[in-house]
Amino acid sequence: MEALKHPDYKAEDKKLKEVKKWVIHEKATVEKQEDSLKEEIKKIRKEVLHLQDERLIAKQQLHQFAERNLKNLKFAEESPYFGRVDFQEKNREEIEKIYIGKFGLHDQREDMPVVVDWRAPVADIYYSGHSKEVGFKAPAGEIKGEMHLKRRYEIVGGSLSAIYDEKTSENIIEDSLKGKGEFLIGALNKTTSGRLKEIVATIQDQQNKIIRSDSLRPLVVQGVAGSGKTTIALHRMAYLIYNNRKNLHTANYMVIAPNKLFLDYISAILPELGVDNVRQTTFEDWAMGILGRKVKLTKSQDKLNLLASKENIKKEVIATASKLKGSLLFRRVIDTHIRRLEAGLMPIEGLSYNGIPLLEHTTIREVFLTSNLHLSLEERIKKMKTYLKARLKKDKKDIKDQVDARYQKKILKAKAYKDQQEIIRLYDERDRIFDEIISSIPQLVDNYLQQVTKFSAIDFYKDLIKEKDELAKAFRDKMRDGLFDEVWQHIFHEIEGGILEAEDLTPLAYLHIKLIDFKERHKYNHIVVDEVQDFDEFRLSLLREIAINDSFTFVGDISQGIYGYRGINSWERTMERVFKDKNYHYHLLTTSYRSTIEIVELSNKVIKKCKGLDPLMAEPVFRHGEVPSLVKVGDQAEMAEKIAERIEELKDIGYATMAIICKNLEETKRAYGYLENLLEDVKLLTDDEDTFINGIVVIPSYLSKGLEFDGVFLWNVDEDHYTDDPMDVKLLYVGITRALHRLYLYYLGKPSRLLDI
Ligand SMILES: Nc1ncnc2c1ncn2[C@@H]1O[C@H](COP(=O)(O)OP(=O)(O)OP(=O)(O)O)[C@@H](O)[C@H]1O
């Protein structure tokens, strides 16, 4: 309701003014602190010799903290909070009025919270409290009590513009359709700014549960398009970091997203939520980071375009080769090979000095095969070096015995001949040899281990692929007759020809970790993976190697799994196989917050036609719009003209972001060719793009995944482009579900049967 009309307006306005006054005062204090810290840092810099100076680092950290604090206070000046709950703890008299905002504000002098951070334990009741009886988990245990009021605010430019209460009767507080709906629909009706945004004020109950789930086991979210998966995953990251903030300097966090364009599209959320220093990357870039070099890959999109084309007769071979490389069985084959390499790695001779045995081969081998198994082979060899040097030094007595034994016969013989001179010479020689051995232990060990063959991940991988029989043993009977030979030929020729594809990166990164180098610093406290339905099982199992406590948030939608040749078809099966014996959280999100009822209904009808998929139907939030229009045109030039006209109309009513979505890259380029002459500000978005561009874009369907636009124009949805092939159905589904408010579909000849509804 409009704020002025609310019965508590005066009190709320007074409260807001008080909080703002506090914020302004606090801001001035922090500004001063920040200035003086800057000066101090300057001064220390002149005095110290290196940048690692402890005093300098401490001041820099304080300065960073002040800067962040200042940023939050600036935000709070405009909008310090968005909600309030009145909470009475069990067996207590007083009712606390708790104001909840994007950033917690704390009065240090009074030691009192001014505004509670949305991630704080008590804020849980704001999101999930539906009845009067509420509770939340605090570090000291569960706290129970009664909620007397739940209120939401719209504060624009520092003034109250609307207040929504969720109190419907004296005893029951529920999300009455109106209270919650109005506030949420208000948020959803806005046109998009072109980037994904934070939603702390309108997080819904189930989304809240996901965000606050414990992080000690993997969490999977299967959600329909537009259900907030990406948004929630990033809020969960912010939540976990906030609750682990004491360890911020040692903790590592990572977000893995499908491509650079998408990363750019989501890049603002975490900093908006006050979280910096989270690594946001693609799987490919992360894997190349592990390998320590850039690897030239063929693009997955090329393969997708190839598989989407009708002509290619090698489709089955290409798809099966990818499946093979992404399977856990392939990982097992690799493991067997690593074990074989490991078993024969230590030299077959023991350690000796001019024929004097110092340590037996069997002992060395046993130690090597049983210690430091969590490290890579190369690191284990380094450890072996240290171990052998220490052990030989410790075994001085045994070495002495060996040397003595070697000289004993000779000395006895000299004694029998009473050859005094020879006896002395032998004793001298014996002692000298012993001293020589002891002083040359480091060199001896170095030389000994120098015999160990050097290996590289890529050479190992190439050798492995050559082992046709080995691979056949594992895979032949899993394929139709004759297919394995074709698949192997294909893989072998690609590798020999130096062609690597995305699916090769997993085995290569895995091999690098197992063979060469795996430092603890590569480990992460939490990893978010978006669009995880396109990951294969080997890739997921590889990520397990780098996640502490299997702390993952996996979000995806099987209905959008367009890389069907490698992706996930059943969460249950994949989780059971990759995370054997490990419990995991599973959540299903079916509400689409993105699109109008009419658009969601169309998308449901389309995805229902996907053979072999049992998709969940999306439920729209109560928000009507125009019915999507299906428009017939005479040729592509006319299609472009009609789209351009419509775009101008939509611009006039305030829609800012629009996309012309085409089925594949080739078509996207063609459509752009027509449109660039008709629209001044249209941009082409292809796989090579790193930066998401706002405004009007022409983009292939696979690349539009995860993005959203006020208006969407689907280019050429005729019966040839979108057949009943599952990949076509999914691509059409992806295209339709990108639209927030308006959707237009154009075709030549006959429309796709998928739209026959
Ligand atoms: N609780 C919410 N309040 C307001 N907006 C929301 C809420 N949840 C989701 N949204 C909005 O819905 C839209 C879709 O969110 P998001 O992109 O995270 O969904 P998704 O499930 O990842 O979609 P896709 O499967 O298409 O990638 C975004 O505009 C987001 O801001």
Automatic annotation (TrEMBL):
InterPro entries named among the record's database cross-references: DNA_helicase_UvrD/REP (IPR000212), HelD_bacillota (IPR048228), P-loop_NTPase (IPR027417), UvrD-like_ATP-bd (IPR014016), UvrD-like_helicase_C (IPR027785)
One MF annotation (Gene Ontology) recorded for this entry: ATP binding
GO BP annotations, alphabetical order: recombinational repair
Entry coiled-coil feature ranges: 27-61
Pfam family, one: UvrD-helicase
Lineage of producing organism: Bacteria, Bacillati, Bacillota, Clostridia, Peptostreptococcales
Xref: PROSITE patterns: UVRD_HELICASE_ATP_BIND (PS51198)
Residue ranges of domain UvrD-like helicase ATP-binding in the record: 202-596
Binding site for ATP: G223, V224, A225, G226, S227, G228, K229, T230
Name listed for the protein in its UniProt record: AAA family ATPase
Keywords: ATP-binding, Coiled coil, Helicase, Hydrolase, Nucleotide-binding
CC per GO annotation: cytosol
NCBIfam families with a match to the protein in the record: HelD_BACSU (NF041464)
